[in-house]
């Protein structure tokens, strides 16, 4: 029996590439050209979407200082993903492009208008990665002393989604009639204010943009905590997930599908993509050696500590690398990422946790393209679906890795019948629901 095809996405951000590597973009990616080139390679490989991650601060979480972040270019500098999404959308024809936009940083009207605009530029291939932001430093950039508690943030996000969806629907599909004989561009009876007034947000509407090709952007979300999973199951077209191994992946997917069904949705309309960081080589031995070199390097360990400190607001620099963590840690930040990283009860040292989890990969994938493709197929079969979100290992992307994946791994997946060989749909939502 043939294995089902899998959906493929790529996780990156508008940030510094592997600036001190010979295959880098010269350390100057800010024109966006490197990412447009990257997206075109992904489109040739028939990826579902490229996802542009984002944060809204310069962190001081590791050691109470910005030093580690600026020194290693970890999490900063990072430019706004929305203009880059528009660039990529205009330069491609079938690839979906997803931008991370925080409910903390945008008023609902501004976000709805921005999303509608980019979806029109991308001709129906834009997605919004919905985040509430998980760092106090980000909150302080928007006039708050600290983030609201996670439960309150999700209550606010529920209302936020209600507002933006009403704004997206403030223009009927047939509102634009372009009747030259009558000199009427849009039928005013099919465009209406929403007069929304809730606990947290207020907006008159309507949008002053035309209804975009998808009506609303494709919704992408990463929910790790129970409340986050509930939110993702209610709204998302695609969920970004990270889990520990096949058992954790299957448990996560089964849980959000169950929650979606309880919310009255068809679980098959939600595609869960698990984060992976494949390490590829011409032989298994070469790939394994590459992994071990990368994981053991002081630079990787420093970047991983900086990353996890930032997204959890926990200073991991205070702990001994060669001792277990002092107990189960909790955060008002990304609790799901923290739980995956700390592996509470495992007894592993912080160094082991960094070397095992510093790549934020749901499962280890190391070997030749054909070996990794075969393993990906086995994993998806055991989990039940739906696909993978690829990120560069060791927190850096360069042209060499893009080629290894798009011209090596994906063709291997296609030979195994595990990935699409052509696009058949027009919009991103249709592409995700193709199978």
Notes on the protein architecture:
- With 435 residues, this protein is an alpha/beta fold.
- It is 40% helix and 13% strand.
- It has 15 helices and 14 strands.
- It has helices at 33-44, 67-72, 81-91, 108-121, 136-140, 150-168, 226-235, 245-262, 284-296, 298-312, 335-342, 350-357, 369-383, 399-415, 428-432, and strands at residues 7-13, 49-53, 96-102, 126-131, 176-179, 184-186, 196-197, 202-203, 218-221, 238-241, 271-276, 279-280, 366-367, 387-390.
- It has an eight-stranded parallel β-barrel, surrounded by five helices. Strands 5-6 form a two-stranded antiparallel ribbon. It has a two-stranded antiparallel sheet with strand order 7-8.
- A hairpin with a 4-residue loop joins strand 7 (196-197) and strand 8.
- Helix 7 (226-235) crosses helix 8.
- It starts with 6 loop residues before the first strand and ends with a helix.
- The mean pLDDT is 93.
């Amino acid at each position: 029996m043939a294995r089902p095809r899998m959906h493929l996405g790529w996780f990156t951000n508008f940030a510094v590439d592997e600036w001190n590597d010979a295959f880098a973009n010269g350390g100057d990616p800010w024109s966006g050209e490197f990412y447009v080139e990257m997206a075109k390679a992904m489109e040739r490989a028939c990826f579902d979407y490229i996802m542009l991650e984002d944060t809204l601060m310069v962190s001081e979480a590791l050691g109470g200082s910005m030093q580690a972040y600026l020194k290693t270019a970890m999490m900063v500098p990072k430019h706004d993903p929305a203009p880059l999404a528009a660039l990529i959308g205009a330069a491609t024809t079938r690839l979906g492009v997803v931008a991370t936009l925080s409910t903390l940083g945008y008023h609902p009207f501004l976000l709805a208008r921005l999303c509608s605009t980019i979806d029109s530029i991308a001709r129906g291939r834009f997605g919004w990665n919905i985040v509430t932001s998980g760092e106090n430093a980000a909150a302080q950039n928007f006039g708050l002393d600290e983030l609201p508690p996670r439960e309150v943030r999700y209550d606010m996000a529920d209302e936020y989604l209600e507002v933006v969806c009403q704004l997206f629907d403030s223009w009927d599909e047939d509102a634009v009639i372009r009747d030259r004989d009558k000199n009427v561009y849009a039928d005013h009876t099919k465009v209406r204010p929403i007069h929304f007034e809730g606990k947290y947000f207020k907006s008159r509407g309507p949008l002053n943009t035309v209804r975009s090709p998808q009506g609303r952007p494709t919704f992408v979300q990463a929910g790790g905590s129970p409340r986050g999973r509930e939110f993702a199951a209610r709204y998302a077209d695609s969920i970004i997930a990270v889990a520990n191994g096949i058992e954790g992946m299957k448990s996560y997917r089964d849980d959000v599908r169950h929650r979606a069904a309880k919310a009255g949705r068809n679980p098959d309309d939600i595609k869960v993509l698990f984060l992976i960081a494949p390490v590829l080589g011409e032989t298994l031995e070469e790939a394994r050696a590459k992994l071990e070199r990368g994981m053991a390097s002081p630079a990787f360990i420093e970047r991983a500590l900086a990353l996890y400190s930032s997204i959890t607001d926990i200073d991991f620099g205070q702990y001994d690398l060669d001792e277990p963590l002092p107990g189960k840690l909790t955060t008002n930040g990304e609790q799901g990422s923290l739980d995956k990283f700390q592996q509470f009860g495992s007894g592993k040292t912080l160094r082991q946790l960094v070397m095992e989890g510093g790549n934020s990969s749901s499962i280890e994938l190391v070997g030749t393209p054909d070996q990794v493709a075969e393993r990906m197929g086995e994993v998806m079969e055991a989990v039940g679906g739906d696909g993978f979100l690829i990120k560069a290992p060791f927190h850096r992307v360069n042209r060499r890795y893009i080629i290894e994946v798009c011209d090596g791994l994906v063709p291997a997946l296609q030979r195994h019948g595990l990935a699409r060989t052509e696009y058949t749909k027009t919009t991103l939502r249709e592409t995700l629901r193709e199978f």
